[in-house]
Design goal:
Number of strands: 11
Shape: rod-shaped
Structural class: alpha+beta
CATH architecture of one domain: 2-Layer Sandwich
Strand content: 15-25%
CATH topology of one domain: Beta-Lactamase
Helix content: 40-55%
CATH superfamily of one domain: PAS domain
Number of helices: 6
CATH class of one domain: Alpha Beta
Largest sheet: 6 strands, antiparallel
Distance between the termini: 56 Å
Length: 364
C-alpha cells in the first residue's frame, strides 16, 4: 500500500489567516461617517437659509406697514416690499425641498452602506468559518495517513499475528518511538480481533493492555474494513482509558504480511489529542475585537466540539438555520450574526459532516 507520509505537526503551527480584517469595516465606517456629516451640514445650512428668509419676510412685513403709513408716497415702496417677501417665500420653499431631498437621499445611502457592511461582515465570517474547518480537515487527513501507514509496520504486523510477550514488548516499544515523534497523539493501541488491547505506546502511563474495547463504535467499524487502504474516523469522545481526555480515534486494520488485502489479524487505533489541537484552531481565527465573536467547530449532530471561549465542549448543541445550504450567514432573533461553513474534506478524507461556525454579537 502506498500512502503519502506527511510530517507530524501540531495544529497550533497553523492558524486561520485572514487579510487585515479591519480594512473593509474601517472604509465602510468612514463612508458612513462622511455621509452623516454631509447630511448634518446640509441640514444646518438649509436651516440657516430658512432663518435668513424669515428675517427677509419680517423686514418685508415691516416695510409694508411703514409704506401703508406713508400713504400714496409709499406705494412704490410697498411693491418692492411685496417682491422681497415673495422672494423670501420662494427661497424658503427651495430650502425646505433641498433639506427633504438631501435627508432622504443621504438616509438611503446610509441604509445601503449599512446593508453592504453587514453583507461584507457576514461573508468575511463565513470565509473564516471555512478557514477553521479546512485547517482541521487537513490535519485529520494526516491522521488517516498515519494510521494506515503504521498498521503496516513490521513490529505491529508481527505482534497482531503472534502476540507473544517478547513480540508484544517490541511492538509497544515501536509504538512508543512513533509517539515520541508524533506528539499530537495521546496513545496508540494494537488490538486483537476480539477487541483486547495487546500493545500500547504508553503502557507506563495508561494501563490499557488487557482491556477490552470491543463495545466501542470505532472498533466495531474497524473490524468491518475491507482492506488496509480503508480507515475509520471516530467522533470526538472522552476516552475513560486515557484519563477521560477528549480524543479523535482513527483506526485501520492490521493484515497478514502488511498487505492491503491480506487476512485481517488486528486493529490499530490511534488517539489524536483533540482538545488542545482544536483549541489552537478556533482561537487562531483572526476575528476583530469589535466582532465579539465566538468561534466553534460542531459535529454532524451540531454538538460543540471546539470553542474559542472553551465553553460547552461536548455538551452544548448549536441550532443552525442551514436552509439546505452548506455555507451561509444570517441574523438570529437577537440580531447576532451567525456564519457557518460545512466541511469540504481534504484529499481522501471526506470529513464527518462537521461545520465551522462563528457567532458574533450584534454590531454596535
Amino acid at each position: 500500500m502506498s500512502i503519502a507520509l506527511p510530517r507530524a505537526k501540531s495544529v497550533a503551527s497553523e492558524s486561520a489567516v485572514s487579510p487585515d480584517v479591519d480594512n473593509e469595516s474601517d472604509i465602510s465606517a468612514l463612508i458612513a461617517r462622511l455621509t452623516a456629516e454631509v447630511n448634518q451640514i446640509a441640514c444646518e445650512k438649509t436651516r440657516s437659509i430658512q432663518k435668513i428668509t424669515n428675517q427677509m419676510k419680517m423686514l418685508a412685513l415691516n416695510a409694508l406697514i411703514e409704506s401703508s403709513r406713508a400713504g400714496a408716497q409709499g406705494a412704490g415702496f410697498a411693491v418692492v416690499a411685496q417682491e422681497v417677501r415673495g422672494v423670501g417665500q420662494q427661497v424658503e420653499t427651495i430650502a425646505r425641498e433641498l433639506e427633504t431631498q438631501l435627508t432622504r437621499r443621504t438616509g438611503n445611502l446610509m441604509s445601503s452602506i449599512e446593508r453592504m457592511t453587514d453583507r461584507s461582515r457576514g461573508e468575511r465570517m463565513m470565509d473564516l468559518s471555512l478557514n477553521a474547518i479546512e485547517l482541521i480537515d487537513r490535519n485529520l487527513y494526516e491522521r488517516t495517513c498515519d494510521v494506515r501507514w503504521w498498521a503496516t509496520d513490521s513490529a505491529v504486523v508481527d505482534c497482531a499475528a503472534s502476540p507473544q510477550p517478547a513480540v508484544v514488548a517490541h511492538a509497544s516499544e515501536r509504538l512508543g518511538v512513533i509517539l515520541s515523534a508524533y506528539t499530537v497523539y495521546l496513545d496508540l493501541w494494537l488490538c486483537d480481533l476480539e477487541g483486547n488491547v495487546i500493545a500500547s505506546g504508553r503502557a507506563d502511563r495508561f494501563k490499557v493492555i488487557g482491556r477490552n474495547v470491543a463495545a466501542t463504535k470505532w472498533f466495531r467499524e474497524a473490524k468491518e474494513l475491507r482492506s488496509g487502504d480503508d480507515y475509520v474516523a471516530g467522533d470526538i469522545e472522552c476516552q475513560p482509558l486515557l484519563g477521560n481526555a477528549q480524543v479523535a480515534t482513527y483506526c485501520a486494520s492490521v493484515r497478514e504480511g502488511g498487505k492491503a488485502h491480506g487476512k485481517p489479524t488486528g486493529v490499530l487505533a490511534i488517539h489524536f489529542d483533540w482538545e488542545p489541537q482544536a483549541r489552537a484552531i478556533v482561537q487562531g481565527v483572526r476575528v476583530g475585537a469589535a466582532d465579539k465573536a465566538r468561534v466553534l467547530l460542531i459535529d454532524s449532530n451540531f454538538r460543540v466540539i471546539a470553542a474559542s471561549d472553551g465553553q460547552g465542549l461536548l455538551t452544548e448543541h448549536v441550532s443552525l438555520s442551514l436552509n439546505g445550504q452548506r455555507s451561509g450567514f444570517y441574523q438570529d432573533r437577537s440580531g447576532a450574526l451567525v456564519a457557518f461553513h460545512g466541511t469540504p474534506g481534504y484529499e481522501t478524507y471526506r470529513g464527518l459532516g462537521w461545520y465551522g461556525v462563528i457567532l458574533c454579537g450584534a454590531a454596535s
